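Support request from a user on the community tier.

User writes: "When I paste my structure tokens into the form, the page sometimes reloads and wipes my input. The last time it worked, I copied everything first. Here is what I submitted, just in case something in the input itself triggers the reload:"
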């Protein structure tokens, strides 16, 4: 399944900046990412997720062809899985509201890029990072080639399907995720793996679920700037369901969306401790950096 471009890590970054006036002639051609900046990277607990992103985009080539087709070549050390999350290659691009938008079938929601020129350097600001870019070739306008989706369309999220379950559980019956001897297992995570590998697998699954489904566009509706940190907590009960979901620290509209996103998690294989099913407390932060 191909997914709408959002994020990869447990922290979600959204740097909103003032876009600069763009022309198609300015953008057309190939651009190479020569530096990757990820805000608040010191707060990301899953350092392998940072490397995943940096490997994918450092040295990547963004090609805005004159026929309105967008092509991308990821960095030489990119993980093959990047293509599944960042489904961008061979789509169309347009300039709209001073942003570069990428998509197909008249749905330009795959990725939005803010173009900036600062102190003689050019940057592409994506929802999760800022790339310093160098233009390596130019192109000329030609007859547009409209790309139609041949596979399943980019996922849209129906938050009305979010299940928000609350039930009373004695705190003595809850164990934190990192303290388990056998953590809850997400789909494709294997029981035969060692404990640390199982924990990393489930954490990565939850992180990528949030990455795909959190509505980063909500940041544009929030009249604040600077750092926003949303602390999410929920319990994975003895049936593997996410329950008692809370989110706080950010604007209410973002807190609520974070709760809805967790409510969309599928049931996991429940965790055990000393051979008995247990309720598991899971915590994760989401961080946004909103600039003027």
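"...and here is what came back when it finally went through:"
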């Amino acid at each position: 399944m191909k997914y709408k471009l959002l994020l990869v890590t447990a922290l979600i970054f959204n740097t909103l900046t003032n876009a600069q006036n763009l022309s198609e002639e300015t953008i057309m051609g190939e651009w190479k990412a020569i530096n990757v900046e990820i805000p608040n990277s010191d707060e990301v607990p899953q350092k392998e997720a940072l490397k995943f992103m940096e490997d994918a985009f450092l040295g990547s080539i963004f090609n805005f062809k004159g026929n309105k087709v967008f092509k991308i070549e990821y960095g030489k050390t990119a993980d093959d899985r990047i293509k599944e999350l960042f489904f961008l290659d061979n789509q169309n691009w347009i300039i709209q509201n001073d942003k570069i938008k990428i998509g197909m079938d008249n749905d330009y929601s795959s990725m939005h890029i803010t173009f900036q020129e600062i102190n003689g350097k050019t940057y592409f600001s994506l929802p999760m990072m800022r790339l310093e870019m160098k233009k390596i070739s130019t192109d000329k306008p030609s007859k547009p080639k409209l790309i139609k989706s041949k596979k399943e369309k980019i996922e849209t999220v129906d938050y009305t399907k979010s299940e928000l379950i609350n039930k009373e559980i004695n705190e003595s019956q809850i164990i934190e995720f990192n303290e388990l001897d056998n953590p809850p297992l997400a789909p494709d995570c294997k029981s035969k793996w060692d404990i640390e590998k199982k924990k990393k697998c489930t954490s990565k699954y939850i992180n990528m679920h949030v990455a795909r489904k959190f509505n980063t566009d909500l940041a544009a509706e929030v009249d604040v700037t600077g750092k926003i940190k949303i602390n999410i907590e929920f319990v994975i009960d003895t049936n593997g369901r996410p329950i008692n979901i809370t989110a706080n620290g950010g604007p209410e509209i973002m807190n609520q969306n974070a709760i809805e996103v967790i409510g969309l998690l599928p049931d996991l294989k429940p965790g055990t401790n000393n051979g008995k099913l247990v309720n598991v407390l899971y915590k994760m932060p989401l961080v946004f950096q909103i600039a003027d």
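Agent notes: The reload is a front-end session timeout and is unrelated to the input. Residues 1-19 have pLDDT under 50 and may be disordered. The longest strand covers residues 107-118. Escalated to web team.
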